[in-house]
Design brief:
With about 120 residues, the protein is mostly helical. The chain has one domain. About 70% of the residues lie in helices and about 0% in strands. The chain is built from six helices and no strands. Helix 1 packs across helix 2, helix 1 crosses helix 3 and helix 3 packs antiparallel against helix 4. It is elongated and about 50 Å long.
């Protein structure tokens, strides 16, 4: 069985992409005078970059949940729906309690709390 990442490890991996994307946006602004566009968020880039790199369903649940937490309601309705749909699909296939049994009690509490905050449960 493969080692499952903790919620904190997932969060740190997401945050690795933030300065990369922000540097790109600053370079674009310096070169063309334009940077951010409406509804564009660093978290979208981070989640795209991480796509396919996580092996266990609970890791995918954590990354999409944390992505919505980081967006903090600034994401477009379409982005919110897409991420929420991915979360709900994972939950429907594997079950919340079954997934939470694969992580520490501390992570389970935080994940469940975040799922409530983003409206997934």
């Amino acid at each position: 069985m493969s080692l499952i990442l903790t919620y904190q490890e997932i969060q740190l991996r997401v945050f690795r992409y933030y300065p990369i994307y922000c540097r790109m946006k600053l370079q674009q602004k310096n070169k063309w005078g334009k940077g951010w566009v409406e509804n564009e968020l660093e978290v979208g880039y981070a989640l795209d970059e991480m796509s396919g790199s996580l092996k266990h369903p609970v890791e995918n649940l954590m990354v999409y949940t944390f992505g919505l937490v980081l967006a903090a309601g600034r994401e477009s309705e379409l982005s919110h729906s897409l991420f929420l749909d991915k979360i709900k699909k994972i939950l429907s296939v594997h079950g919340l309690e079954s997934l939470l049994e694969t992580v520490s009690d501390e992570d389970a509490v935080e994940i469940k709390s975040d799922l409530k905050i983003v409206g997934a449960i």
